[in-house]
Structure formats: structure tokens, C-alpha cells
């Protein structure tokens, strides 16, 4: 089953645009782009949980017992609390 082809557009106060997408979106069809990770989803040191962290600060923003659930929690947290608060697509995460 192919992943859904969907994405969320965030238009920041300075007019820059960022988006959060699934792996099913074919980015090459959108033209030139610059990709920057909004988070990191990795197993914990003891491999018992998946952890979602911000890339620069390494702040833990979500955990889950499966990678799929971690990705769901990552998306919800980024869209609800983190990406909308950034003044620009160039803001640090």
C-alpha cells in the first residue's frame, strides 16, 4: 500500500512557506526545493521506545512504542505546537 500523498502548508508571518509531508509526496514534481528536517525519529538508547526530538536542541517532543505511532505523534505535535509558532520558514526548530 502506497503512503498517502498529502502535505500541510504553513505560511509564516514573513511570507515564507514551509510544509510537512509524508513519504508518499513526490517532491521532485514541485520543482526546486530545500529540505530541512523538522524533527528526528530514532529509537531510544535502550531501544524500548521511539523518540521524536527537535534537530538543533535535541528536545524530546514525543515518544511511542512503535515507529508508526511516533510518526503520528510527531506530525500532531509539529502541526499543533511547533511549526505555527515560527515567524519564518528559516527559524530554528
Topology of helices and strands:
Elements: E1 7-11, E2 17-21, E3 40-43, E4 50-53, E5 60-64, H1 67-82
Antiparallel strand pairs: 1-2, 3-4, 4-5
What do you see in this structure?
- This protein is of the alpha+beta class and 93 residues long.
- It has 1 helix and 5 strands; from the N terminus they run βββββα.
- It is globular, with a radius of gyration of 14 Å.
- The mean pLDDT is 85.
Short description:
By secondary structure, the protein is of the alpha+beta class. Helix content is 17%, strand content 25%.
Report the sheet with the most strands, covering strand number, pairing sense and barrel closure.
3 strands, antiparallel
Which term fits the overall shape?
A: globular
Spans where pLDDT lies below 50 across 5 or more residues: none
Distance between the termini: 32 Å
What is the helix content?
10-25%
Taking all Cα atoms into account, the compactness measure Rg is 14 Å
Query: Whole-number average pLDDT?
Result: 85
Instruction: List how many beta strands DSSP finds.
Output: 5
Task: Characterize the quaternary organization of these chains.
Answer: single chain
What's the tally of helices? 1
What's the helix-strand series? Answer: EEEEEH
* Relative strand content: 15-25%
SS-based class: alpha+beta
Order of strands, main sheet, comes to 3-4-5
Keywords:
93 residues, 3-stranded antiparallel beta sheet, two-stranded antiparallel ribbon, 1 helix, globular
